[in-house]
Amino acid sequence: MRLAEKPSGCVVWIFVDDALNLKAFRWFRGREARPLPNIADMKVLKHTKGNARGTKSERQGHRVIRQSNFDIINGMDDLLRRLLGNAILN
User: Fold this and answer.
1) Phi-psi group of 75: left, alpha or beta (phi > 0 → left; psi -120 to 50 → alpha; rest → beta)
2) 3-state DSSP call for residue 26?
3) CA 36 to CA 44: how far, in whole Å?
4) Nearest Cα to Cα of residue 24 among 32, 13, 33
5) How far is it, in rounded angstroms, from Cα 81 to Cα 24?
6) Closest CA relative to residue 24, chosen from 85, 84, 67, 64
7) What is the SS3 assignment for 47-64?
8) Among 37, 63, 68, 74, which is disulfide-ready with 42 (CB 3.0 to 4.6 Å)?
9) CA 75, 76, 82, 83 torsion: positive or negative?
């Protein structure tokens, strides 16, 4: 949840194949120099391992963001342009 408070915070979702070759990118962020869109109402992520009773507790500082909330990135150049601005590729 702390990332959601940062200006220009973003999430980059990287897809790789079994050999760890980069395949695709997705992008989630708010408007430039603004925090992420409100994620407080999104589903809370649970721990992957249960406690001694097998209960998987919630991770209050984490949210599940649906793939449909992410923009498709058209390759590494597009990703770098979004992260660092146009000047980086000139």
Assistant:
1) left
2) strand
3) 16
4) 13
5) 15
6) 67
7) CCCCCCCCCCCEEEEEEC
8) 63
9) positive
Dist. CA 27–CA 88, nearest whole Å: 18
Do the Cβ atoms of 29 and 65 come closer than 8 Å? no
DSSP for residue 88:
G
How many angstroms separate the CA atoms of 47 and 10, rounded?
22
Phi, psi values for residue 68, rounded to 5°: -65, -15
For the full predicted model, state whether its pTM sits above 0.85: no
Place of tokens 């590494």: 76
Helices (H), the chain: 76-84
Structure-block tokens of residue 83 = 């992260």
List all residues 6 or more positions away from 82 whose beta carbon is below 8 Å from its beta carbon: 10, 27, 73
